[in-house]
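Worked example 3 (structure in, sequence out).
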């Protein structure tokens, strides 16, 4: 009886996993079944931090997965914020090394963010990532509420990085790319802790700002940095 019960639990887990995999390919499958072969998932990383760039990625999963299902090594793929650093790195390598997955990654720096605002900068990074894909995607699945400024027909999905494998894959590529850049910036600008908090407004980061002042990669248009920039403009005018 115990053995049968154990087998039943394992079977239930397998069915649950299979259902989850099917549902997270649901948006892609619906488009594929309509004959829209090239479907890209797009996501960004780094809209909230006080320093550094915003990164975006676009990922096109193989249309053949309509029949075969998700590549086994991508099981467990999720919103990058729900994964450990090790899991993100592992999925990153699987995604970029898979011969049938196409992807693009783009970065917009802090200076452009200050010039055009973070929302426009994130959208620009997304479009730059999409521009790298050949052939051009026929439809785009975007994480978020708005799709303004996208040059390709698209669907916005709130919480999309947890609902679509394409968006989740893009989330991982964008997050890993930006995290690696912030580790490098930590070496260039020591004392701020960029390698640990990646530029977000943690107590450690705010304390470093109070002690050291902003460094070259800080976003001057972001509070609490904006008042400093405005005061400097007054003195320079």
């Amino acid at each position: 009886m115990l053995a049968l019960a154990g087998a039943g639990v394992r079977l239930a887990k397998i069915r649950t996993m299979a259902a989850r995999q099917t549902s997270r390919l649901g948006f892609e499958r619906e488009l594929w079944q309509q004959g829209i072969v090239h479907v890209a998932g797009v996501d960004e990383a780094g809209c909230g931090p006080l320093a550094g760039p915003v990164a975006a990625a676009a990922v096109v999963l193989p249309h053949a997965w309509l029949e075969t299902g998700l590549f086994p090594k991508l099981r467990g793929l999720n919103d990058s914020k729900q994964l450990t650093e090790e899991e993100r790195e592992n999925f990153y390598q699987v995604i970029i090394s898979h011969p049938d997955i196409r992807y693009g990654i783009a970065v917009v720096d802090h200076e452009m963010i200050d010039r055009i605002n973070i929302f426009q900068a994130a959208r620009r990074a997304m479009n730059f990532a999409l521009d790298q894909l050949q052939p051009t995607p026929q439809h785009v699945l975007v994480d978020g509420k708005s799709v303004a400024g996208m040059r390709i027909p698209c669907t916005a999905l709130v919480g999309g990085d947890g609902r679509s494998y394409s968006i989740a894959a893009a989330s991982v590529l964008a997050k890993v790319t930006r995290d690696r850049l912030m580790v490098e910036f930590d070496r260039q600008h020591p004392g701020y802790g960029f390698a640990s908090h990646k530029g977000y407004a943690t107590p450690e980061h705010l304390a470093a700002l109070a002690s050291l002042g902003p460094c070259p990669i800080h976003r001057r248009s972001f509070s609490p940095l904006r008042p400093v920039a405005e005061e400097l403009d007054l003195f320079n005018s």
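Notes: Strands lie at 39-45, 54-60, 102-108, 139-143, 154-157. The chain has one domain: 24-236.
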